Amino acid sequence: MRVDGETGIVPLRAMTAGEVLDAAVALLRQRALPLLTLSLVLAAAEQLLLGRLRDAAGLRPPFYYWGVGPENVSWVPVLATGFATEAFIIAVLGGYAGAAAGPALLGRHVRHRELWQRSRPAATLLIALTMAALTFGAAIAGFVGVIFVYGLAGLATVILTIDRTANPFTALGRSVGRSARHGMRGLLVRLMGYLTWLAIRLALGSGWVFAAERLTPVSGTEWWLYWAVPIAWGLANAVAYAALACMDAVLLLDIRIRTEGLDISVGRARSLGRDTEAVLVAR
């Protein structure tokens, strides 16, 4: 059943950066089951991959990169892979979050499984792989470029599923253009959201790591520490990745409201009795 209501959980108006974060959390709560399930699977796969790379590079828990000397650069490709997997996972989740954001803005009830049909998985996966490759290359080149890759191109999958662009490359180009508007507001809000959730991840992950460290002397083995670290970070990352994907979807709607008058177009469509979902498709 679909009901086009006057308001949804995403405000139909321009939002502050804090309101974008709040609306993203509301969207995550509404779609917690599919988003967190997929995020947990991807975060677990990420920890397995990074665990093997860390072992090969001689990086040990609990703080893998702490105390690594300048002569040891084996951590560089491991950290670059970590940034790349983050970009990949957030992009994949963004496809579903984008499909969910439209109904959340319009106040429509849409079942979870219907959103999977709107998420355009093949094109989303292609963008996610492209984001991972670009992020890895930027990280290897000195890490500064990661800021611009993440901040400018990261809205591509939500653009794909909200704007319904013709192809992934159009979505990537449109992401750069929209993120650069209003003095790079899209880039800055994405970075603010990333740093906010990074602080939350550090708090969640470190808490379990310190608990595992306290158990190590009691148990007489490092088994607790070896498993607790990836599990703690995997759980913290899973929540953060899903929240960041939802933030991207809300941020795109905010950008369109500010620069394209999306709220006016939706209001006009409602007053004329037209399909409001068609308004979301950018031409």
UniProtKB/TrEMBL annotation:
Protein name: Glycerophosphoryl diester phosphodiesterase membrane domain-containing protein
Organism: Actinoplanes sandaracinus
Transmembrane segments: 73-101, 122-141, 147-166, 187-211, 231-253
Keywords, alphabetical: Membrane, Transmembrane, Transmembrane helix
